[in-house]
Amino acid sequence: MTYSPPKLITFEQFLAEYGDNTRYELIDGELRDIEPSGLHEEVSGNLAGRIYAEILHSNLNWLIPKTCLIKPLAAEATALRPDVIVLDKIKLGYEPIWQKEPIICNGNTIQLVAEVVSTNWQDDYARKVEEYAFLEIPEYWIVDFRGLGGLQFIGNPKQPTFTICQLVKGVYQQEQYRLGDAIYSHLFPNLQLKLDDIMP
């Protein structure tokens, strides 16, 4: 039996074929199926609503786009599609592609990204932790509402887990929360949130 490596595609090919399809993202030339289920979308929507209410309450000049790709300038064939992304409206003026396409290239435009974990949990807990830290995104939230992540990431026994990664000197410091725990975000210190609030 011979191994055939996956067919790699460029960012331009991805944009032409899958740019409008929220089911896919591109990591190092490999097409990834995000596999969003109805429950996954429900959790994403609940979380985005809570964050947006806090943005309005705190009078921040930030927005949450309906759909958005992140194309790190240093990566030739990567297009990440976070479940929730919070952007600084002022810094959008410095984005090279934003006027034509919902694509962010500069990490400093992004205040927060959140990923709702599905069966491709390895990307959320490993690859994206590195990618988002490299982009210097202040906070990265991992919402594992089904407890799918590996034992080394969410512990044993597996259970629903909400992880907040806060960027400290270029590295994410991680704090985990379980059902019933009050979640604390440095970015949104007044946000009152529990994992229970966004569960499907």
Polypeptide structure, described:
The protein has 200 residues and is of the alpha+beta class. It has one domain: tt1808, chain A. It is 25% helix and 24% strand. A 6-stranded mixed sheet has the order 3-5-7-8-9-10. It is globular. It starts with 10 loop residues before the first helix and ends with a helix.
Quick one: how many beta strands? 10
Assign the CATH topology.
tt1808, chain A
Can you summarize the main beta sheet? 6 strands, mixed
Tally of helical runs: 5
What is the architecture at the second tier of CATH?
Alpha-Beta Complex
What would the principal axes of the Cα set say about the shape? Answer: globular
Task: Report low-confidence residues grouped into runs of 5 or more.
Answer: none
Write a concise synopsis of the structure shown.
This protein is of the alpha+beta class. It is 25% helix and 24% strand.
Kindly list the characteristics that best describe this protein.
24% strand, globular, 10 strands, single chain, 200 residues
